[in-house]
Amino acid sequence: MPAQINAIIATLRLWDLVDVLIVAYVLYYMYNMIKDTKAAALLKGLVVLIIGTLLSNWLDFHVINWLLQKSMTVVLVALPVVFQPELRKALERIGRGKLFRKNTLDKEELENILTGMTNAVITMSRHKIGALIVVEQETGLTEYMDTGIRIDGDISNELLINIFIPNTPLHDGAVIIKGSKIMAASCLLPLTEDRSLSKELGTRHRAGIGLTEQTDAYVIIVSEETGTISLAHEGKLQRYLTPEQIKDILRPVMCDTKLTWQDIMQELFNNLRRKK
After folding, report:
1. What φ, ψ does residue 190 adopt, rounded to 5°?
2. How far is CA 203 from the centre of its chain?
3. CA quadruple 98, 234, 127, 244: dihedral positive or negative?
4. I need a surface site. Which of 137, 163, 165, 205 has the fewest CB within 10 A?
5. Segment among 67-71, 92-96, 206-210, 248-252 with least mean pLDDT
6. 160 and 182 in contact (C-beta within 8 Å)?
7. pTM across the whole model
């Protein structure tokens, strides 16, 4: 055995080590992505089927082994359907690579936007006005904007409060923010299917969590019953946050936006012109 191990070590190249590290990182990334989700339980069931198939083959249980092999075939065909949300999420994360990024909001403009948002949240929390504010990231939210009323207005404390005042035409639903603009209001969001959530969380919270399970958006939620301020992201909910904490979380998020290929070419052109 030691001789075999030494022989394997002797044949190892640097690229083999890199290969193993890449695979280990991918597996670790996949584990972090699916843990605490429905996919984790499904994978456990798949592992049980594999172990059962191997044991039945070893013990010569021919009928059981035949049934398990057929079951494995069906499971493998069904995996892309069963894991569709997780696969979609993984592909979106790959597509949202952060290789080319730049700041499009200057510091003063960003602080004004954050102040307007947090002041509105403070007022709505104090008066127990329910609110659902979505901050778009790399994943486009056009399909959700289309379910509401287009606004395309500048972000301000007054406008946000007026939108969510009870019994007004736009108060029921979510506001979607893109960059420095309120793009739409009264938007419909998908509800989460997570049954482990607390029963005290209503439709507003479940809609906020549901959207962040499918996109990379950040969602600010103000409870109509308690005035509690929460933030949803990547299917997780942080509750009992202060407006300053919301600011600290959103500040690096909102100032970092995608750099388009047109921006890259323009920057190259400008550099060449400066050199001349």
Report:
1. -75, 140
2. 19
3. negative
4. 165
5. 92-96
6. yes
7. 0.63
Q: Where are the domains of the chain?
A: 2-95, 101-258
Residue type, 96: R
Q: Is the dihedral of CA 101, 107, 112, 115 positive or negative?
A: positive
List C-alpha distances in Å: 42 to 2, 48, 51, 226, 271: 39, 10, 14, 36, 53
Top-level CATH class of 101-258? alpha beta
DSSP assignment string, 150-172: EEEEE--HHHHHHHHSTTSTT-S
Per DSSP, helices labelled H in 98-242 are 107-126, 142-145, 157-164, 203-214
Residue range 159-189, pLDDT digits in tens: 999 999 998 989 899 999 998 899 999 999 9
